[in-house]
Fold:
Amino acid sequence: MKTDKHDAIILSSTDEKDANQQFVADLKDTPIPDDELLANLGLYLSSKNLSRILFFNEIYKKILHNHGIMVEFGVRWGQTLAILSALRGIFEPFNRHRKIVGFDTFDGFKGMGDIDGDKSGCSDGSYSVVPGYEEYLNGILGIHEQLNPMSHIQRYELIKGDATKSVSEYLAKHPETIISLAIFDFDIYKPTKAALQAIKPHLCKGSVLVFDELCDDYFPGETIALNEVFGLNNVRIQRYPMAARISYMVVE
Ligand SMILES: C[S@@+](CC[C@H](N)C(=O)[O-])C[C@H]1O[C@@H](n2cnc3c(N)ncnc32)[C@H](O)[C@@H]1O
Structure:
């Protein structure tokens, strides 16, 4: 149910876990030479992991004609930011306004409360990463930009800190911000509500909000926060069949 380290939830069956472990062992012990490894990572990509990438491909296409930056609330190891960077390189490599900004404590959950229930068994500090991980991720995102045009203009930023403060502080420093895409993946109520409230004045018609835990009984706080800030009756929550848990809404 939980990972051995960092206290993250895995709902896979034992068979799935075994198969995934085998993939990890095979990847660590790959016979593929270094100069061919990255071009062959698809070997180890399961349908579940591929589905998330396909989902973000569809979402990216939805914002292509909207102006504004992309933000992720809850970055963790940063894969989604890397995917967004790669998609930007494919779809609009010269859009210098399409900044990518990620918010995280890089220390795990902060602000979990009774409203989040106890089904997840998580607490503050769950979903942590290793110390100093944000520097590693900064480097990775830098390489993504190097591989695409306009790499002399940095178009990503990681904001470390408690999002109950850091999101409004960022937007106070950047009052020009328009948000075309916001991805919510804090899992818990308090920072989700604070981020929703902070970004609301920076959304336009057509802005897309993505949610990882709506209608999820392990993490009820995300839905409660959305209900309190936008009202569930006022929004159309949609999904793509290829990705089970992620949903999105378009500001109308
Ligand atoms: C489920 S993980 C995010 C996973 C990531 N989006 C992905 O696709 O792999 C949730 C993240 O929210 C972050 N988080 C939780 N509470 C926070 C808070 N108050 N401020 C900033 N980050 C927070 C945690 O540190 C954790 O990295």
User: Anything to note?
Assistant: The pocket of S-adenosylmethionine is lined by residues 74-77, 79-80, 103-105, 108-111, 127, 162-164, 185-188, 191 (CB under 6 Å). The beta strands are 69-73, 100-104, 156-160, 179-184, 203-211, 247-250. The chain has a mean pLDDT of 96.
